[in-house]
Specification:
This protein has one domain: P-loop containing nucleotide triphosphate hydrolases (Rossmann fold, 3-Layer(aba) Sandwich), CATH 3.40.50.300. Helix content is 58%, strand content 13%. It is built from eight helices and five strands, in the order βαβαααβαβααβα. The model has no long low-confidence stretch (mean pLDDT 95). Bound molecules: adenosine monophosphate. Adenosine monophosphate (AMP) binds next to helix 2 and helix 3.
Length: 193
């Protein structure tokens, strides 16, 4: 089993690249953003509890996403590995993930960190706001709040995994296929696939 974290700020291309990576490497995609959006769409109590936080671009509480990941790990026991997208987003989430994986006799093999300039992130997110139904991509204020949350709380996650030599930085600007090749190179060089 091998497990990857696709890491990077909002708009860095994690969703797009995740789709390509899971199909090439046969991984199970776990996106906490997608899981939370489906709770909102289903109007579940959890969805209703997180709806306004997400619309404001704020992180939802650690306990909620950790529990969602815990259930997803339990419900997917026969997979080659997981690709975590948008999780972990805080050091507490990273520590909880490490613990959950180690209880299952596995661990994070690699953190692929996409690097994209702030200017490009804002451009991409506003563009996605025009073409998708994501409410958190429409306003420049909400986009700025999400990037601020990333800088304040999420960038520390890379530091956490750097301690274990697991982080590979990848240029996240360029064509989708070029970025995908760089990500694959990072995986293949680690020899985890
Ligand atoms: P994403 O689709 O990954 O951009 O996430 C969209 C929104 O969902 C974020 O702005 C947060 O409000 C929430 N969210 C997704 N994943 C997490 C997480 N791991 N921790 C806290 N909040 C999250």
């Amino acid at each position: 089993m091998f497990n990857i974290i696709l890491f990077g700020p909002p708009g860095s291309g994690k969703g797009t690249q995740s789709e390509k990576l899971i199909s090439k490497y046969g991984l199970k995609h776990l996106s906490t953003g997608d899981l939370l959006r489906s709770e909102i769409a289903g109007q579940t109590p959890l969805g209703m509890a997180v709806k306004s936080l997400m619309a404001e671009g704020k992180l939802v509480p650690d306990e909620i996403v950790i529990e969602m990941i815990n259930s997803a790990l339990d419900n997917n026991t026969h997979v080659n590995g997981f690709l975590f997208d948008g999780f972990p987003r805080t050091t507490a989430q990273a520590e909880a993930l490490d613990k959950l994986l180690s209880q299952k006799g596995t661990q994070i093999a690699l953190v692929l960190a996409l690097q994209v300039s702030q200017e490009e992130l804002i451009k991409r997110l506003l563009n996605r706001g025009r073409t998708s139904d994501r409410v958190d991509d429409v306003s420049e204020d909400v986009i700025a709040a999400r990037i601020a949350e990333y800088e304040k709380k999420t960038s520390a996650v890379a530091e956490h995994y750097k301690k274990y030599g697991k982080v590979e930085y990848v240029q996240g600007e360029g064509s989708i296929d070029d970025i995908f090749s760089l990500l694959c190179k990072g995986i293949d060089e680690k020899n985890v696939a």
